[in-house]
Backbone:
């Protein structure tokens, strides 16, 4: 089973609108502040904050216990009430959308880091537009495999998948994106899986396109 | 003429590769801190920080002096910064092929409110928002407009006022969106007007595009 958590920022738009229509920068400021905290606090307990739509903070929580304490800290920082949901499922996507809750132990986390190196190396606006297109393709492709993901920066996307069909998903990614290199990290906890994915990507070399690092 | 300020994080990729394997969360935290400060500085000067690439910070800066107030970013950044000021007949041209700044014009902020997001599961809504943002980014190039996804059901673009309505109407004919357009001398004010236009649209459900000029 995979374990996911989400913090829904309840009434963010309404809160921002209290100060009038000059609100967008205030929303952006609040979200950036919360994302910084969410990232750091999740890392402290070996979870991973997955940056997605900002008004819902998403956490990968396989084999992470007592995340409620982290939620309480974010609750204090948030200008609006937060709704916390933790649930489990056969895939990360199912876990995110389900109302099922089972106790750990969970399945290992599988982090798939996709580097589109030509786009990483270019700093132009057009490469940002191109990357967005490819990111959208990857995210849609992943849905059918129960995988979820996001962009961590330009040219670098991350997915979390189940180990049973993760390799098949990766095969599709490398077919669709000829410029992609994929580092895969598998570990009990998401932060370690991410570390392993980075290590896999670093050790990929010039010839290969996919590399795995597995350790608990 | 439109003004765009770019802050390039020099050697950012190299820095990300030098901080060990357990690094992604550290990089994300730095990025969030930089975006937070960039948003604050921009708002104080009447500009708008447009979140796009993480290694190049983009400020829409018509009729502002935001480029003179970026010192706090240097203190936060793990790498040296290069500040580039560009002017051009559109925001895209100001970003791509900078010309000397002469008199600066009004700017249009085009705020897309994606209607269908709220009807979906949170994550699936996000995936669809990414798809739509990708489409917006492509279409915007033809209108010489730049923009990005702001989170939730929001995407924002900036263009020359002369093409803002056409861009908004083109996209609203394809997608289930409401589009608020604000036109003003400074980007922050233009966004404020765009938000007000969206509020009007939420009340008057028959229209999908509203333009307000400051």
Residues:
């Amino acid at each position: 089973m995979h374990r996911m958590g989400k913090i829904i920022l309840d009434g963010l738009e309404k809160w921002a609108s209290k100060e009038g229509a000059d609100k967008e920068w205030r929303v952006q400021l609040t979200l950036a502040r919360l994302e910084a905290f969410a990232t750091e606090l999740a890392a402290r307990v070996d979870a991973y904050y997955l940056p997605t739509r900002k008004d819902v903070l998403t956490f990968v929580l396989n084999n992470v216990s007592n995340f409620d304490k982290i939620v309480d800290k974010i609750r204090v920082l948030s200008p609006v009430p937060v709704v916390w949901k933790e649930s489990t499922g056969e895939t990360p996507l199912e876990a995110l959308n389900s109302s099922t809750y089972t106790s750990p132990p969970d399945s290992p986390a599988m982090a798939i880091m996709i580097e589109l190196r030509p786009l990483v190396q270019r700093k132009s606006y057009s490469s940002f537009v191109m990357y967005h297109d490819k990111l959208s393709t990857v995210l849609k492709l992943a849905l059918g495999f129960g995988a979820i993901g996001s962009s961590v920066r330009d040219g670098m996307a991350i997915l979390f998948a189940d180990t049973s069909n993760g390799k098949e998903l990766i095969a599709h990614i490398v077919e669709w994106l000829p410029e992609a290199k994929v580092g895969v990290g598998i570990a009990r906890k998401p932060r370690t899986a991410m570390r392993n994915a980075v290590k896999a990507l670093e050790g990929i070399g010039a010839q290969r396109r996919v590399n795995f690092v597995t350790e608990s | 003429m439109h003004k765009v300020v770019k802050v390039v994080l020099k050697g950012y990729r190299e820095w990300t590769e030098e901080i060990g394997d357990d690094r992604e969360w550290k990089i994300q935290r730095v990025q969030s801190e930089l975006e937070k400060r960039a948003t604050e500085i921009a708002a104080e000067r009447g500009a708008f920080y447009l979140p796009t690439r993480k290694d190049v910070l983009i400020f829409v800066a018509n009729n502002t002096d935001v480029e003179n107030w970026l010192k706090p970013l240097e203190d936060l950044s793990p790498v040296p910064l290069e500040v580039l000021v560009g002017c051009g007949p559109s925001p895209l041209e100001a970003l791509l092929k900078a010309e000397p700044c002469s008199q600066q014009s009004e700017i249009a902020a085009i705020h897309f409110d994606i209607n269908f997001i709220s009807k979906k599961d949170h994550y699936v809504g996000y995936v669809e928002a990414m798809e739509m943002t990708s489409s917006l980014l492509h279409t915007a190039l033809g209108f010489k407009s730049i923009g990005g996804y702001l989170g939730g059901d929001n995407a924002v673009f900036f263009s020359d006022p002369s093409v803002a309505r056409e861009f908004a109407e083109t996209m609203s004919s394809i997608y289930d969106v409401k589009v608020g357009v604000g036109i003003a001398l400074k980007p922050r004010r233009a966004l404020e007007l765009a938000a007000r236009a969206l509020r009007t649209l939420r009340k008057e459900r028959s229209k999908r595009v509203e333009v307000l000029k400051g």
In short: Residues 184 and 214 of chain B are 5 Å apart (CA to CA). Chain B is about 45% helix and 25% strand. The first strand of chain B starts at residue 2 and ends at 9.
